[in-house]
Structure formats: C-alpha cells, structure tokens
C-alpha cells in the first residue's frame, strides 16, 4: 500500500493534477489491485509530491521497456542502451549497504533490513536528466529518512554521502576510465531527510533492473538525475561536504546541488524545455518545471540561496 502524506502536509486530493495508479498499470491489473485493497480494508493513496501542482495533463508514466532501456549508467558504458545490453553479468544479490560516519549504530545492513517488504511504498515521480530528457517512473522503495533515523543521526552530521558499487569485472564501463569510479554523490542532511527522497528497490512492483541501479538506488525527484546514485553500497554521514563525481569532473557543467531550474541553462544547452522519452519526435517537448514540479514541497530548503548559482 502506498504511504499517506506526512503529518502536516496537504493531501494529494488537494492537488489539481496528480499521477494515479490507474495511469500506471494496465486496467485489469489496476482493478485487481483495487479489489485486493478493498478486501483488506485498505485505501489507495499516493505520497505528497507524486503529482505536483502544475503537471501537464498528459504526464503519464513511461513504459517499463522505456524505463529499463534508456539509461545513463556509465559503469556499463556511455550509450543509453549499454546498461541493458551489458548488464547481464552483474549480480545484484546478495547485497548489503554499509551505513557509517556520524551515526550511533554504524554497520552493514542487508537489503531486506533496509527495505523490508512491509515498509515499501509506491512513488510516482518525474525524472529529469541534465541532458534535457525526462520520464515519469512509478518507483517502489523506502524513504531515506527512515533508514538514517534507524542508524541514529548524530548532532554533528550535516551531509550524507553515497558510494556506488565498484565491480569492474562485472561492469565493463568501469574498465574504460570514462569516470573516476566508484561513483560518489552526496546530499545536504535536510535534503536527505526530506519525505520525497527515496531509496528505490523496484519499478512497477518489480525488483529494480540492473539498468536502473539494482538492487537499491537513490531517487531525488527535484534534482537532475545524476544526483541519484545507483547500486549503492555505502551511506556515510559527515560534517563536511563530500566530493561528488560529476561535480569534481566538470563543476561548471554539473553543480553540487543540481536542482532542476528552467531559468539556469547548462553551458552547452538550454534547460527551459525537456524531451519526454516516449513522446515522439514532435510531441515530446514540454516546458521544464522549477524543481521538476516539486517546488511547493522543496523550495523552502533553499530559502536565501541564489538559485541562479550552484554553490
């Protein structure tokens, strides 16, 4: 069952546009799901932000084939189809994630400890790539905040760092030196603790495909996609801002915060509009939404910051 909005937040029913499970699944599957929930006495709801105000009416989820066959995952190669084509040798299970740094209870946690089935939620989020393309993806996962709270965040913690897997024997892109692997990313603590920030373990109710970052990845829907580290093996809380892969490689093009902003262009292309994957050559472009459409939920995180700069 999908989670209800956090206490104090507006209900999804208050939003003029929202993404709904009836938009995600085939009708027969949707009706079966509704019948099951009714029999169990449950109600079907989506978390705050699943369909933010101002979303285009045609904002439908992408197909599973599109989601799993159009990806940036340089560990397997630089081509969009490389992760699906060359990911067959990658073994995502068994898996564990080391949680350490400024926490009271550091240690290695198995996947089913981080994301037990009873805690998994349904989140339909937009995904916006810094390259100018976008998707809508029905994720399954757990809020990152819960994982951090369970580890016991210490008072001095200000940042959360993520390290992706390093397996060059299974990931051919790691043998080509395009990036300095392992891939690393980071968030400010309040970003990491925000209710929208997700550790995803599935799509469309199925375990994550290798191409999507199996078996567990970060999803931060108001930021460009490169901020959402895939195949995470370590989460570290720290009092100093951690280095991040793309920002180290080219800080002018890939800012640390990387919030989606239609008014701030990439040095080599405009960010004012985006191409929706699956939308066709002529009908796929649409205006980019500030914070990818989640401004009502996250803009307060950046009060007083100059959004034309990426600190």
Automatic annotation (TrEMBL):
Keyword field contains Signal: yes
Enzyme Commission identifier(s): 1.8.5.-
Classification via InterPro entries: MsrP (IPR022867), OxRdtase_Mopterin-bd_dom (IPR000572), OxRdtase_Mopterin-bd_sf (IPR036374), TAT_signal (IPR006311)
Cofactor or coenzyme needed: Mo-molybdopterin
Signal peptide: none
Domain Oxidoreductase molybdopterin-binding: start-end pairs: 92-246
Binding sites annotated in the UniProt record for Mo-molybdopterin: 71, 74-75, 129, 164, 212, 217, 228-230
Cofactor binding note: Binds 1 Mo-molybdopterin (Mo-MPT) cofactor per subunit.
Keywords assigned by UniProt, alphabetized: Metal-binding, Molybdenum, Oxidoreductase, Signal
Source superkingdom: Bacteria
UniProt PTM: Predicted to be exported by the Tat system. The position of the signal peptide cleavage has not been experimentally proven.
SUPFAM superfamilies from the UniProt entry: Oxidoreductase molybdopterin-binding domain (SSF56524)
Reaction equation(s) it catalyzes: L-methionyl-[protein] + a quinone + H2O = L-methionyl-(R)-S-oxide-[protein] + a quinol; L-methionyl-[protein] + a quinone + H2O = L-methionyl-(S)-S-oxide-[protein] + a quinol
Role of this protein: Part of the MsrPQ system that repairs oxidized periplasmic proteins containing methionine sulfoxide residues (Met-O), using respiratory chain electrons. Thus protects these proteins from oxidative-stress damage caused by reactive species of oxygen and chlorine generated by the host defense mechanisms. MsrPQ is essential for the maintenance of envelope integrity under bleach stress, rescuing a wide series of structurally unrelated periplasmic proteins from methionine oxidation.
Entry similarity comment: Belongs to the MsrP family.
Known partners and oligomeric status: Heterodimer of a catalytic subunit (MsrP) and a heme-binding subunit (MsrQ).
The protein, known as: Protein-methionine-sulfoxide reductase catalytic subunit MsrP
Organism: Paracoccus contaminans
């Amino acid at each position: 069952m999908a989670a209800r909005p956090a206490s104090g937040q507006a209900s999804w029913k208050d939003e003029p546009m929202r993404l709904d499970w009836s938009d995600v699944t085939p009708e027969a599957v949707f009706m079966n799901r509704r019948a099951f929930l009714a029999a169990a006495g449950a109600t079907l709801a989506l978390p705050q932000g699943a369909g933010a105000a101002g979303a285009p009416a045609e904002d439908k989820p992408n197909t599973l084939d599109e989601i799993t066959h159009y990806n940036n995952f340089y560990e397997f190669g630089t081509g969009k189809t490389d992760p699906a084509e060359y990911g067959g040798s990658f073994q995502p299970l068994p898996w564990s994630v080391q949680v350490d740094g400024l926490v009271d209870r550091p240690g290695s946690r198995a996947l089913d400890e981080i994301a037990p089935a009873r805690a998994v939620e349904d989140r339909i989020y937009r995904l916006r790539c810094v390259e100018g393309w976008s998707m809508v993806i029905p994720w399954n996962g757990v809020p990152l905040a819960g994982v951090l709270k369970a580890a016991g965040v210490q008072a001095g913690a200000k940042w959360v760092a993520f390290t992706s897997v390093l397996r060059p024997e299974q990931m051919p892109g790691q043998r080509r030196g395009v990036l300095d692997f392992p891939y690393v990313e980071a968030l400010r603590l309040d970003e990491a603790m925000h209710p929208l920030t997700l550790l995803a373990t599935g799509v469309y109710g199925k375990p994550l495909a290798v191409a999507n970052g199996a078996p567990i990845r970060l999803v931060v829907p108001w930021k460009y996609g490169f901020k959402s580290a895939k195949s995470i093996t370590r989460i570290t809380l720290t009092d100093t801002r951690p280095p991040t892969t793309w920002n180290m490689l080219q800080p002018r093009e890939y800012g640390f915060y990387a919030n989606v902003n239609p008014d701030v262009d990439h040095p080599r292309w405009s960010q004012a509009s985006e191409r929706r994957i699956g939308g066709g050559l002529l009908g796929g472009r649409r205006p980019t939404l500030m914070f990818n459409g989640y401004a009502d939920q996250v803009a307060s995180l950046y009060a007083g910051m100059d959004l034309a700069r990426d600190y």
